[in-house]
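tool=predict chain=A
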Amino acid sequence: MSSKAKAVPAAPANQTVATAEEQLRGASVRITTARVRVLEALLDAQRAQRTMSHQDVQDAFADMDRVTLYRALDCLTDAGLAHKIAGDDRVFRYSAGAEHTGEQDSRAPHHQHGHFKCTRCAKVFCLDSIGEAGLLHDALQETLGKGFQSHDIEFTIKGWCADCAH
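tool=predict ok
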């Protein structure tokens, strides 16, 4: 059994592959095996409500060389299909992104939501509803005034997840 299968409860493989390919096509990104595999792993992790560190992804794809993996992650991040979250432990964690709308504007914000980080188990959860409602962007405009444009928001609430709080 692969480390990916142990670490991430997966949706049916064909469904996740189809979703990954559809998202790549929608973002006008060339479909490669590496990009599909990495996006598939991030989508599976998202379903399990977790993020993946670069090491987690590398462990899941021991057969993929490091450069290809870095390029796939960078491509997915640049396309808004994934985002990386900077942890206070200096480890980047990746999550499948919901930022792609079909109309990619290089000036448009790619990562406009907050995160919750459990200080016991180190899991990171996306707070997508805050970004979807535009609350963080609105708060920026209200506090600083017109003319300020954010391109990336790093907003993290720290505490204990439901599992660790018990």
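Residues 1-10, 99-110 have pLDDT under 50 and may be disordered. Helices lie at 3-7, 13-26, 33-47, 54-60, 66-78, 128-133, 135-144, 162-165.
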